[in-house]
Write a structure and sequence with these properties.
This protein is of the alpha+beta class and 179 residues long. The chain contains three helices and eleven strands, in the order E-H-H-E-E-E-E-E-E-E-E-E-H-E.
């Protein structure tokens, strides 16, 4: 199990957005309709952020799990995973629907390198990509992400083919196909 590290950018964005919400609510407290609408927007945005916010990533002999703050775990069974590799999301990636720093990066993104993916990450420099057999992709981050990728690759290889995965510092994309 490895905790998700929040980058300085994500921390600043989260604090700034929450502070702006508070300032907006305080400044409109005498204007009932505006204050009510702003309170509803604040509550919905904060709940969405807390729902998707990644807290930690765990991997065992059967699956990879993303532990999120308010919602249940997101589980990826090894039998559903096609490939895994370290990945540095492009700062120019298009956010299709989601957050670009408020409680981390979560939601649908499109990147020039890997295409469309769903993100659960809080530090781009600690990210990795899981590609599923159904062509869905997930970008996840955690402390010790390289060791996490090695562990998952070793489990994928030994489960399916009895091969030892690449364990050097330069990780190559491993593509696993069923015999």
């Amino acid at each position: 199990k490895s905790k998700v590290h929040f980058s300085t950018y994500c921390t600043i964005i989260t604090i700034a957005v929450l502070a702006l919400f508070v300032v907006g609510i305080v400044s409109t407290r005498n204007e009932s309709p505006k204050c009510l609408i702003l309170c509803i927007i604040t509550a919905l945005a904060t709940l969405a952020g807390l729902y998707y916010c990644p807290i930690s990533v765990a991997a065992d002999s059967k699956s990879v799990k993303i532990h999120r703050l308010l919602s249940g775990d997101k589980t990826f069974n090894y039998s559903d995973i096609e490939s895994i590799d370290t990945f540095y999301p492009s700062p120019g990636a298009l956010r299709l629907c989601g957050s670009g720093g408020f409680f981390g990066y979560w939601g649908y993104f499109s990147d020039i390198i890997i295409g469309q993916y769903f993100g659960y990450y809080a530090d781009r420099s600690q990210s990795f990509c899981i590609k599923l057999k159904n062509n869905r992709q997930y970008v996840i981050s955690c402390d010790n992400h390289i060791e996490m990728v090695k562990f998952i690759m070793n489990n994928l290889s030994s489960r399916r083919h009895g091969i030892t995965a690449i364990t050097d510092t330069r990780l190559s994309l491993i593509h696993i196909s069923e015999p």
